[in-house]
Structure to design on (138 residues):
């Protein structure tokens, strides 16, 4: 079954479209965290970011700053978050890649984040870095 985003792309479900080209569409979120909360979605229906074609990934990379700048100008917001989740355990609800652009306002509207960093284990980090570099070269 097609995702809600694919149905929006096909024109089966209405949206407040902000941007569209051959590979990407951007529209206002129907359940916004703040005014201007926008979803930037590749037209290629893939569940997670690493599954996208290089062309779709590049198109997203080009669209995000363009759309973010327009949202800032249109809303008067001076800050924003970009959020992208991959997999249900990472809080992804629609299994179609999408980025949230969420304007942040002086009154607190926008994304609230709790960040709990911990100290790095350098020995484990060195081993992990080696494994990741090997995967990148494979």
């Amino acid at each position: 079954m097609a995702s809600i985003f694919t149905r929006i792309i096909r024109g089966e479900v209405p949206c407040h479209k902000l941007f569209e080209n051959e590979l990407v569409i951007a529209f206002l979120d129907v359940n916004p965290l703040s005014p201007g909360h926008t979803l930037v979605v590749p037209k290629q229906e893939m569940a997670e970011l690493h599954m996208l074609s290089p062309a779709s990934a590049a198109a997203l990379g080009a669209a995000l700053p363009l759309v973010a700048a327009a949202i800032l100008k249109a809303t008067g917001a001076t800050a924003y978050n970009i959020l992208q989740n991959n997999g249900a355990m990472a809080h992804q609800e629609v299994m179609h890649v999408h980025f949230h652009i969420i304007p942040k306002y002086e009154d607190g509207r926008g994304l609230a984040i709790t960040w709990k960093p911990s100290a790095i284990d350098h020995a484990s980090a060195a081993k992990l870095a080696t494994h990741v570099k090997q995967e990148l070269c494979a």
In short: Helices lie at 4-9, 54-75, 122-137. The chain has one domain: 4-112. The chain has a mean pLDDT of 97. The longest strand covers residues 99-104.
